[in-house]
């Protein structure tokens, strides 16, 4: 999909500020620093629409990026940033939960996991939460450029079976850095929109 005029519509700090247009929403979730903001930039081929940071734990609001009035990319705050206080982490979790719980126009959840790392407790909680919610989702193993090409598929399978031994086919590799797999992921997003 070619997005001509992507723009930030609002950085919401409370549900009262969520957009009311009713457009479908594709939501990015994942650990702090996994590449949620980079994912958005890569998909629309912009360098800096979504603010990225090498310093984790910076996003404390929910950013709604309007894609040509067709849909939103929604950038949720990252969870599990170890340097954040327990209270601060609780606040972030509540914030995420509130959005996922009340929002009726979610078309797809994109859960990002770092391809290099073992699945963390927070990732597992998030995955289970998504499964329980019944909302459509995909899991992307991001930063695939950081490992050997020959290892990518095995790692994706490992992450998949770690999260769900029964089986789940919604797992794909991704690299926001190298812009590979972008077309595959667009094909999926378009199916859900
Ligand atoms: N090598 C590599 N680095 C990435 C990739 N995606 C994101 N990053 C880097 O990881 C850091 C955090 O990215 P960001 O998008 O801000 O993560 P967020 O906290 O989940 O929004 C930044 O320094 C990005 O440049 C990727 O696919 N490959
Ligand atoms: Mg971010």
Walkthrough of the structure:
The protein is 33% helix and 22% strand. It has 193 residues and is α/β, with parallel strands linked by helices. It has a single domain, classed as P-loop containing nucleotide triphosphate hydrolases (Rossmann fold, 3-Layer(aba) Sandwich). It has a 7-stranded mixed β-sheet with strand order 1-3-4-2-5-6-7, with helices on both faces. Helix 4 (149-163) links the parallel strand 6 (137-142) and strand 7 (171-173). It is globular and about 45 Å long. The mean pLDDT is 92. The chain binds guanosine-5'-diphosphate and magnesium ion (MG).
The main pleated sheet reads as: 7 strands, mixed
Q: Provide the CATH top-level class.
A: Alpha Beta
Structural class: alpha/beta
Helix segment count?
5
Strand order of the largest sheet: 1-3-4-2-5-6-7
Rg computed from alpha carbons, rounded to a whole number of angstroms: 16 Å
CATH topology: Rossmann fold
- Could you estimate the helical fraction of the residues in percent? 25-40%
Give a brief description.
By secondary structure, the protein is of the alpha/beta class.
What is the topology?
Blueprint: E1 6-12, E2 25-30, H1 36-43, E3 62-67, E4 71-75, H2 86-102, E5 106-114, H3 121-133, E6 137-142, H4 149-163, E7 171-173, H5 182-192
Parallel strand pairs: 2-4, 2-5, 5-6, 6-7
Antiparallel strand pairs: 1-3, 3-4
The protein binds guanosine-5'-diphosphate and magnesium ion (MG).
